[in-house]
Amino acid sequence: MKTIVVLTLALAFFSSKAQDKAQNTSVKQKTTTIKSEVNMEKKILIIVSNANAIGPNNRRTGIFLPEVAHPYAEFDKAAYQIDFASLTGDTPYLDALNLANDPDNLAFLTGKGWEAMQKAVKLADVNTTSYDAIFVPGGLAPMVDMPENELLKKVIKETYERNAVVGAVCHGPVSLLNVKLSDGSYLVSGKNITSFTDEEEKAYAIADVPFLLETALTKQGAKFHAAATWSAHSIADGNLVTGQNPASAKGVAEKMVSILTTSKK
Fold this sequence. Notes:
The protein is an alpha/beta fold. The protein has two domains: 1-40; 42-262, Class I glutamine amidotransferase (GATase) domain (Rossmann fold), CATH 3.40.50. It is 41% helix and 16% strand. It has helices at residues 2-40, 65-77, 103-110, 112-118, 142-145, 150-161, 198-202, 213-219, 249-262, and strands at residues 43-48, 53-54, 59-60, 63-64, 81-86, 94-95, 121-122, 133-136, 165-169, 192-193, 223-224, 234-237, 240-243. Strands 7-5-1-8-9-13-12 form a seven-stranded mixed sheet. A two-stranded antiparallel sheet has the order 2-3. A two-stranded parallel ribbon has the order 4-6. The longest helix has 39 residues, at 2-40.
């Protein structure tokens, strides 16, 4: 009789443990699923230039490879939906293909990144209000077709004012230039930002660019922060994130992901 009681208690004990383990596993699976679903709800629109030449000597240009590849890697790691739009809907160009041996750059070129970028949708055909963030990579190309593009300015204004995240790196912050908010003020006025600096430009493409980006942003009231030339440097001011140069692209994306992770949207 004692043996039967002991066996019954043992079976009950192990059955309870098994149920607890199954429940814990179920909870972990549900937690993982929920985290994945939260991330998958986030949508990033990368807006790229269509320019392939700049300046009086028609210097060949495009989107600087690591400035799109490194952020793409971070957004992909966060399991975000990543879409591309270009100003005209034509196939955009890439610059700095000599940097293809970098792991993130190579993954972008041989994986889904470059394939998706080549199929970039015309910005005018995109419902930009459905995105949690927009990101503008640099290269010299944006200096050609982004300083005055009215639709781009409208998209950035509306994205910023609905508290979605706006990010840009290197020459990409030229997209922020001339953006006016609903109160008539410049978006960059009073904001802590950075971009490719005048010092960097004077040693890189001074003969090709139509103006110095740091100077232009400062004239519109930006609180400009410059780090050592070519060093990684990114800044977040509320839902606006900017980076100084190619080395800063990953940092911009990391800050954008951090903001989106803590966002209640």
